[in-house]
Amino acid sequence: MNLNAVCISTRRLYPRRIIFLVVKMTTLMLLISVMTVSASTFAQKITLKEKNASLDKVLKKIRQQSGYDFVYSDDILELTSPVTVDLKDASIDEALKQSLQNQPLIYHIEDRSVTFKLKDGALLKATAGQTIAELHGKVVDETGRPLPGATVTVIGSINKTLTTDVQGEFTLIGVEQNAKIAISYVGMTTQSFNYTGQQNITIALHPDAKELNAVVVVGYGTQRKKDLTGAVSIVTSKDLEDRPATNFGYSLEGKAAGVEVIRPSGKPQAGISIRVRGTTSITADSEPLYIVDGVQSATTYDLNPTDIESITILKDASSAAIYGASGANGVVLITTKRGKNQKPTLTLSTYGGVSNVVKRLNVLDRSQYIDLMTELNEVADWTKYKANTNWQDVIFRDAYTQNYQLALNGGSDNTQYYVSGGWIKDDGVARNNSANRYNFKVNLDQKVGKIIKVGTSVLFSRWFDSNIDDNRGSGKGGVIMNLLTSSPVIDIFNPDGSFTANPLRLSFNNPAAYTDGAINGYNNSRFFGNVYAEVNILSSLKAKSLFGYDYATDRYNYFLDPFKTDFGRVNNGLANLNMNQNSYWLNENTLTYKKLIGKHSIEAFGGFSMSKSSYEGSAIETKNFSSSTVTTVNGGSVINKATGSRSARTNQAIISRVNYAFNDKYLVTGNFRADASSVFGPDNRWGYFPSFSVGWRLSQENFLKDVSFLSDLKIRYGWGKVGNDRIAAYSYFGQVGVGYNYVLGGVLNSGTGPDTPENRDLKWETTIQNNLGIDISLFNSRVNLSVDAYKKQTRDLLFDKPVALSSGFSGALQNVGNLENKGIEFALSTKNLVGDFKWETNLNLSINRNKVGYIADQVLPVGAIYQREEAAIIKEGYPLGTFFGYVAKGVDPQTGMEQYEDFDNNGILNNDDKRVIGNANPKFTYGVTNFFSYKNFNINIFFQGVQGNQIFNATRIETEGLNDFRNQSVTVLNRWTTPGQVTNIPKAVADDVNNSRISSRFIENGSYLRLKSATLGYSFSPAIVQKLGIQKLGLYVTGENIFTSSKYSGFDPEVSAFAGQNGVSGIDYGTYPQVRTFIIGLNISL
Amino acid sequence: MCIALCASCKKFLDVTPESSATTGNAYKTSKDIEAALTGVYNTLYQEYFIWDRVLLGDARSDNAYSGGDDQEINQYDALKISSSNSRTTFDYRQLFNGVARANLVIDKIQSVNDPQLTAERKSQITGEAKFLRAYYYFELLKLYGNIPLVTDFGSVDASKVNVPAATPDAVYKQIIADLNDALVLPDDYGQGASVNKSRATKGAVNSILAQVYAQMPNPDYNKVVTYCNAVINSPAGYDLHPIYNQLFDGSHYINSEAIFEVQFIANTAQANWGPQLFLPPSLTGDAWRKYCTPSVDLVKAYDSEGDIERKNTNILMANAEWADEYWKPCASAGQIPFVFKWEHANGYASGDYTYLIRLADIILLKAEAQNELGNISGTDGAITLLNKIRGRAHLTGKTMSDKETVKTYILNERRLELAFEGSRFNDLVRAGKFTTTMNALQEYKLNCGNADRELVNYAANSDKMLLPIPASELNRNNQLKQNPGY
Questions:
Q1: Does A623 lie at the interface with B, CB-CB under 8 angstroms?
Q2: Which of B420, B273, B261, B293 is nearest to B347 (CA)?
Q3: Is the ipTM of this complex over 0.85?
């Protein structure tokens, strides 16, 4: 610290390199006092005659005569040659000029002191350790903008690392001659030079096109990208910045090959469902494992995207096997921002925006509705109902979003901190639908002594949301379905203030009753954090211990007023309070050994981990409220339900990995992990998950080294086994449930009943994955292509196998069956223009094929549509996401009835006549990002698309069913009415669902291409804003879901009504549409 | 140290459920096995017994229309039941679940060594479980006809549970064996009348034995009479409750007529949510269209007998805002009939009980058997028994007639007496009159605003006397075969 202070202060006094004459000063105070004394003596003319005298001697004499202070270093005199001078009453300037002729020195006079230094390019003889040389440097990017936080490493006998400050500047003192100095910065090519006495240097780093040296976060550590042998996708904070969003998952959409992001709904609290290389299980969870700063994270909606530094998705077994336990579905590693050794930087990121529904569906108006109802013999006294309401106008609205995030980042050599806090409010486009999040984050790192580092990552978040129901039918309170099927003849309220209902069915309240009728909201808090200590036992050996903790409490409140809705009146008011607590702790102790021996690079890693997660929940429901004044459960006089339960599960693991590289050319990685999980029987708890992978960098071979256009060429192959234990706690037990109570003799008796059959043989589901990949980088890394082909085979499927109901059970969790995913992924990035006008393109394309193998001769109908049957099936030989139903042949012109294929010609339509009628899986998915920048402007345009999939539009079953009092879409105006009429819409038949069975009639083309987002940004020149004391100032406008090309007839082709269920996808069932959003944002750094 | 570490690992991984018991620890004590037995009774709270048996017994026959807006209940009404109808799948599951819980008690009680469990209580528990198992199997058999016979608990192994359907004879044999074993049950548990109505008693066992021998493909009417007599002359002192209407008014559930009933407590998790589904908006407070609308034909049946008392007890005319295609085709104010067998909806939390067996049913069953045996007249003859029931309803007695006519009298009497108690469908089947009755029905769908009306064609045939085996069960157990006609 002391040394640093001196260094900075002296630089301020003497902007050039300094030399102390007479006495070598070590402290500033002494230096100043010496100079003050010297400067007080009077200067005189110089007279001197010397021949072939040493410069040292000559300068001493000039100094004595002049009374000036001379400042130089002894060692520079060693480079001088003897001088001959002849001076008489010369000025000091003349005297020095003559003395220094043909010498490698220059001088500078200021006040009464003279500083001497070497001319540029002069070489000082190496005298290690004896100089206090100071190097002042500045690191900039190719445009000359300073790069704060760049790493400067001095490699010599004393290694030293520091980072650049906010101006991108650094100062090194005590640098040895010929020391190698390397400057690196994430995403830039590292530059190095040998120190030869330079004093001032500006280093311009160029973007590392192929980012080969970029450091990538991998499981339990980091790796240089060029050393990777597994299949990983990386999303950086820049990608996150390009698409401001409430949930980081949105930023993964279409950005990473092989990673499918599913949004089950367009509402702000819908969250995401991610599938990495397809769905791998039927019963067990198929979501990837999320690891945030080293700790498994159960939820992700409470992470603030602006806090995220990078996201790495481990896709294949060789990269994910280190997380053996839950690696089968892929692993999403999220690293949050940490403090940097820099002056404190305060950044405000804020945006505001407006969203709306892109498309409206046309439904029947009042008179068309009455006509249809008359035809259906559903007749009310229409004169009593005078309205002509389009419920989409009532429920949909322009929704506003605002987001404020403040972050402070800074630190010194020993302490670094990142602190942030923010608030985001995101309203949904449906009435009363909103989400609100407060987030706080602290990341700290502290060096203790020379070898110990201690740190913490802490997240605290609060979440409030007011939900509305979607993805369900109108009879079950689905708001989106109801706004299509509600009668147009009614207004929102009756004269008495209650909500109106369909005159033909007074139990069908209008959709506003569902959005406004009940008070409901989640109120969640979450603490998520870890502490770690790292000890560098040896330069090559590091021990790390980490303790992570996740504690979340969720509270849900619901109150239905006793007057306004049908259900509220029946119960005379109803309130719910649900409280859940989830906690998780993890302890991990690891050792990492890293050594470079000649051309051999070895890294070994091993450790032990244990974790426990616990859940406790309670719920209470009361009814019979005296009024709507008290809305909490205590206001109800009757307790409907009061319950609570607890559960826990534990895991243990032994982890190990070896990385070996020879000459940067041959790369080998081996992993082995043993995992134990409490959900399996005592004899089957441990699962063993090995993996290995190899890489060969052909471009390093002699025969390719000279191919000038080839920057890099690598072939990778990996094999591994990963596991899945994500089933309910206590799964192997035969569980006997309580609550099977019964009243005998008017007295309540407690009863028990068997819930699940015992299965002590229950064991790990395993997925074996092979991955072959190639990375090609061409033309000075301006073209980069990665191609990966994989095959994932899941065995011992954890499968809740349907068992004969006559056993008393409906299913038994067993390890039965297998399924397979295989596919190819392409990721291409090109730098099309690299001059002032820059143009970069990123393209990715994924193909995945899923196939269900043997599942114990069972077929599972899934995706039940209310009042119809299941729309999808899980069946051997077919992919998950297969639609199953009757084959529609069109409308019989004579009868007006929809005709179906009767395959067995037995005159009745039954299960045997159902066939596979469609496939929700796309042939391929793709994303294309184009980035342009010119001077201060940048433009980012992102297209995303899905090709060759089908959607089962179950919404149409309700809007084109033509069988009851529900309003219908305008397509039914073409309904069959007279014999002989040829049309594709059958006739209206009351209470008859034969015309709207689950059939191929509702299968639609789901392909789409969408301008998912476009951003126009402007960054003010540093030179301008710095005058205002601002480091960085940027403005942007972003549009989301701007344009979609699709043949799909529903609101939006991005649908997944059953996203929580494996094997059911692509069903639109009153799905809340994806919205179009425009936002304007500001980023400012101080 | 390594051993110590591994031992602690093992302990760390041994987490056992806290909020549920396990098959390993749930059946040790007397209290445990009593709780398991309570669990067997708990099946009587399942949806099947709450209301689906009424829909299957009355809406599937000529007593009622489906009402409501449920496509699957409409299938019952129209006699076009799909094998993937989820309601019949649930019924199948709930009943077999009850069977499994009974199997469990019968199996686990062997190994309970608790001094608290007396030998007497032990045999009672087994008896109660066997009665319930027989009762559930009897329901399954009447509904589905061809079902597997499972009497062991706990196996989900395909080789053990994927068995072909047993013949109805074999299932009846098992039912009778269980019921005979259950005859150890007392008439009186000594804990008050209410207990004797809700627990299985000897009276309940004899009643089901009588029903079984009557419903079998080859009925044994002598046995029917024997078991009916055992009930009628039981020391439990069963007798017709003098006022029919009081049986269902909510205040007289503990009466001399009740033999086996399901008890509920209002406003608790053990409340009866069924009445809300039947009763009119004036009594439920909501406005949606109710289920199981009494049919024109049933109302005619009451009216032609001049049976005002039972008509008004079982059917309530009340205002409905919706259109009813049989009674009131326009959606405007007007009255339609509602099921009125339970009178208190109480917001899905009624305290109204459900009779599963009551004496009137047994008396009429005896009359039916006596008629078949040719004992039509006399003090214990069919006519006397029939008139006993008619007398309570304040109807004039029927006079002596031929066997076929008396059979019709009894069938019609059961209809009027037991409407909406889930009996009608099985009565028609037992009488061999299901197909003819359904196909002779004159039920018309009406149109609002014009006189056009459409005669409903039920297209009944003998295949419709059974429900389809649920498609999902066929998928689960490939040894089963679908019933004919599905």
A1: yes
A2: B273
A3: yes
